[in-house]
Amino acid sequence: MTVYGELVRLKSEVPSCYHQSYIQTGYRPINRSILTCIKSAFWPTNEMLNFWTHFISLILMVSRTVRIMINFENKFEVVKFPFYIHSFGTCYLLLVSSIAHLFCCYSERCCQRCFSVDQAAVVVYAICVLLGFDHLACPMSCYGIFSGVTRETYLTGIVILTVLHTSFSLFTLKSPHLAAWRTMPCILMTILIVLPCIIRYTNDTDDPKCFPLADKSFDQFAALCFLAQVFFIALGGIFFATYLPERFYPGTFDIVGQSHQLFHICVSLSMYFQSLLIENGLNKASEQPTVSRNNLSVTWACTVGVFSLVFVLTHTTVLLHDRTRPNIVKITKIT
């Protein structure tokens, strides 16, 4: 029988790129086979629950998406594109992050590559959330400061920010004093994505411009879903930024209960309420007459086109980073 001590290492026994703040034990040995990486999903290590919290969420999200799609009468109707894109972005992020946590111990180089692609997956997910929100939940052109901004201008700004976020996250990773450059595009991108929803769901408005469908009344269910999503992502951000609870008890939560695991759980719950919000918007759109649905202005260019562009640009950035930055650096896990 394998001795537990042979399966894990102390923090001092693994390269610095694997070090996690306040986590002292439970590190997996590096330079192992792919089969060993897969087996490690069932070992009590500090990555075990990081993998399962994402992988179980992936299974649940895929099954939920399939269940919804089965009930579609016309699966290729253009109004469903934002739903498909949002579902893909969510599942893609969960899949990439699961793979990153599981196979990062294959080698130091693999660790760097895994979490570089993970960065790109986060950006792809963000643009998928935007497209779902903008077409089915909170059209940005109907609210406040966005009232005079065209959708094309808005999406162009978001695309630029996604590329900047990916570039700064990867190419400045070795420079702690450039942390602000890594953070700023992410913050701006997040604000631009959620601000229209904040304006809509914090104002009980019946302005005809506020939603391009026949039913323009305040949607309490959608508002609750949005608030729940914001609550869980904010709570997850607190765990991620503060390293609670292991900050106060280093070594105690190395295997179970560390902040990154709690962050994963909060993110999964946020994704669930987000999917409810998008599904609710899709149901309302599907109930409307075709003429009313056309007011959503769902086009191939503003959905699949924007998604494809961001997907290609972010992953090209990852590829360029991998070819120009051969040195192994400490990785900051974000998913």
From TrEMBL:
Main location: membrane
Domain of life of the native organism: Eukaryota
One cellular-component annotation, GO: membrane
GO molecular function: metal ion binding; signaling receptor activity
Chain residues that bind Zn(2+): 101, 260, 264
Pfam families: HlyIII (PF03006)
Transmembrane segments: 49-70, 82-103, 115-133, 180-201, 221-241, 298-320
Keyword entries, A-Z: Membrane, Metal-binding, Transmembrane, Transmembrane helix, Zinc
Subcellular location per the Swiss-Prot or TrEMBL entry: Membrane
InterPro entries the record matches: AdipoR/HlyIII-related
Topology of this chain in the membrane: Multi-pass membrane protein
Family to which the UniProt record says this protein belongs: Belongs to the ADIPOR family.
Name this polypeptide is given: Uncharacterized protein
Annotated source species: Ciona savignyi
